[in-house]
Fold each of these.
Amino acid sequence: MEIAAKGKRVLITAGAGGIGRAMTDVFHKAGARIHICDVAKEAITDTLKTFPGVTATLTDVSKLTDIDQLFADVKRQLGGLDCLINNAGIAGPTGKVEDIPIEEWERCIAVDLNGMYYVTRLAMPLLKAAGGGSIVNLSSAAGRLAFPFRTPYAAAKWGVVGFTRSLSMEVGPDNIRVNAIQPGVVEGERIDRVIRAKAQAVGISFEEQKKISLERVSMHRMVSPYDIANMALYLASDVGRNITGQAISVCAGVEMLG
């Protein structure tokens, strides 16, 4: 059976940068019809130029009015939905729990967890109308391990796993599969910002903190955004038709975060 998505109608949140951009690329090459959303207007413009046929909506997934507009566009552009990739997320603040501003905690939960719910609740009727489909939620290695100084992010990503497993049982009878991917240390500007913030919080250099982070990975290396995108395609394709309720790590063997 081929790992492909030909003709599948796919919504990818935060699909114009980082892991989301890689997912747009992989699903586009696999023949999917894709609508993306993102908060970065310039990134959307570039993505649409790069991938002909992809459509997009400027969206902050933490805002209900934005989500309403997103799904109006999805219905108009795709006519339905076969697959939802809940990729949108932010790194959130770094610091001791007593020092984290309440508004930064709330913003992290709003985007990383609440936004996933907001999108999924409107996607569900479309997936049911299609006779079933697949949802892939982005969690993190922080959704299975302790992550000191990153409590808002870890709390949200553990929440994603609970949401994924509970929803998979709820919608299994509707032929909808729900899985989570737990990336580890992913190459790119975002992880550099995270490492820099952690280094500052504990009082060491960026290079020292990066070395520490990779020493806690069995294979002592970062993973590529395309590693995550390829797993998403596998889970969304017919090859993954009997995989549901799983939180699958794509992390080169992360043993500890910190």
Amino acid sequence: MAAKKKAVKAGAGAYTAGKAVRSNEYVQRLVEDEELRENLRNAFVSAKKAYGRVNGKSPAKALDDKKVQRELKDAATSLKEAADSLRGQKKRKRRKGRLLVVGLVGAGLALALSEGLRKKVLDALFGAEEEFEYTASTTPESNSSSTTSESEPVRAS
């Protein structure tokens, strides 16, 4: 009879634990969110690979290994994404920033390739160019004395 009471108590405890797990929001997210599970799986795999490369090496040599650094970075990134997902934070979408960059690059290309557009922008920024015709205020002197002295014969005295 004592064994039966223990079994009933264990069953009640398991039922209570199951009920608590079902009502836990973190467990619900873990069950429902495929991306969260994938991030946790990636973090585990990366950490396992890093541990496999570090195993038996001194810490100084292990940290110099580029593959270990990459695996640890991947594990940290996956854990951060999983933690953000558990907290309910969405990934920040950088649509506005990307749109701004694409717009600036497009405007730069348009200015570089279109002479008419470039002139319009420069006129809008600095005002229209004043077109003028250059006329000299002085006239160049003619060297009539040098031309005449060459044509005249030199007289000996």
